[in-house]
Amino acid sequence: MNQAGIGLRAPYVQPLLEHMPALGFLEAHSENYFGDGPARRQLLTLAKHYPISLHGVGLSLGRADGLDPEHLQHLKALVDEVRPVLVSEHLAWSGYRHRHVPDLLPVPYTIEALQVFCDHVERMQEALDRAILVENPSNYLAFQRIDMDEADFLNELARRTGCRILLDVNNLYVSSQNIGLNAHDYLDRLKGDYVGQFHLAGFVEQVRDEDRVLIDSHNQPVAEKVWDLYLECLRRFGRRPTLIEWDSDFPSLDTLVNQADQATRWMREEVADAVV
Amino acid sequence: MPLSDYQEGFLDDLLSGTSSIEDAIAPAFKHRLNIYRNNVNVGLKSYLADVFPAVKALVGDAFFNSFCQRFLTSHPPHSGDLHRYGEPFADALASFPALAEQAFVDDVARLEWAYHRAYYAPDGTPLVMPDDPNHLLTQHASLHPSVALIQSPYPIDELWRQSRPDHKGEFTVRLEDGASSLLVLRTISGVTVQRLEPAALHCLRSIEGGLAFGPAIESAMALEGAEQLTPFLSHCFNQRLFCQPE
């Protein structure tokens, strides 16, 4: 797939159906399409014209207890109906026992957490009968104790479960600025064969009490520095399905398509041999 | 710290502010927990404001905000599908002493919750109106999964309509306008809120309770609006309200 895609959000449904711009795929947040409402019907209509990628935000792969079987069942029904080209989730957690929050919370990269992720990715892949992708998070803090770093954690997760890594280039850049992670070293150690998709998005800078933090806000164009890092990824790993994510303060569909076109140009011009 | 303790502690911190997992965080980054606290707090409150816009308008922004704060702690979300969050909101409002004088608010919340859930409800298998009306009389049906039947001593449909942010005109509803019985239903064109006569409400409840159309109609004949039952039921068939019996 050498044409970039965009995130499917409610304001874009009508413009997409009207203008049908050339895009590699549309990526939808799975949980927005559970149930049989009008949104699900619109997604199925769009699925006739574009490949669909389903990106989950609520399964909580990193939860210390078991995955929610009902959530998995809803996801399975959606996947069976939509037949997406990609299915992904996050290297994060958001629920444990009876409580759940709408955020992607950080996981300490310990042996214990790795086992939890391996079990849950396997469970998810078994339920869906397909391989999934797992996305690196935006890091805002570091833990007191870890057993390995993020690149090793992801490599090991992919090696043991057969899942692929969804490399969010913006998250990697944000993490490098927020916790001093070395992005080049990270890319150096990430196994190219495991990388299955790229995400690109915008961030905002927040300064509080002299603490500068980049927030993965998905409400801005992709930053120059992130484009640079994307280029490095393309040269290291080759082409992968690439997504422009924009989740609030929505611009016109054209703006989003233009960003996707830039990624597409780079995929075609900068990578001599297609790896995928 | 075992992963389970860390997660339990983090959720306590985020939802009730009663515990902290600062010990697990590297010293230079402890203050960054505020980013998650803020995301979760703002995220959940703005979600509740989206689901209950009329309640928010009726009680005012400040009251709504502080009520939501309590609600997050007393009734945290249980599911990774956020759209399912908010069912106990109406009951929580009803048992909140400061709102005792405004009992209509929790009924408006019930209507907003039904309206929200109707959007995500599954599709039922529609029941086709039989050609021979006599067959209808012995027919059983279930109601479409998006259906909610709501009764209130107040005109909550108008309170709701006129309190929503998209309402342009004056606020003309008066509580003395009296009781309302409402049908919430997702049709082909979207979620609708329709007012019901007592006979229509009774008939729908009877069908929902397992009576065939004949006895259900019979049981409503003495009630107000009975003369409109035939066109009403045909309107319901057109809107695909009746589904195959379960």
Automatic annotation (TrEMBL), chain A:
Gene3D superfamilies: Divalent-metal-dependent TIM barrel enzymes. It holds the Pfam family MbnB_TglH_ChrH. Coiled coil: none annotated. Signal peptide: none annotated. It comes from the Bacteria. SUPFAM superfamilies: Xylose isomerase-like (SSF51658). NCBIfam families: PRK05409.1 (NF003818). This is Uncharacterized protein.
From TrEMBL, chain B:
Gene3D superfamilies: DUF2063. Pfam families: DUF2063. Residues 6-91 form the Putative DNA-binding domain. This is DUF2063 domain-containing protein.
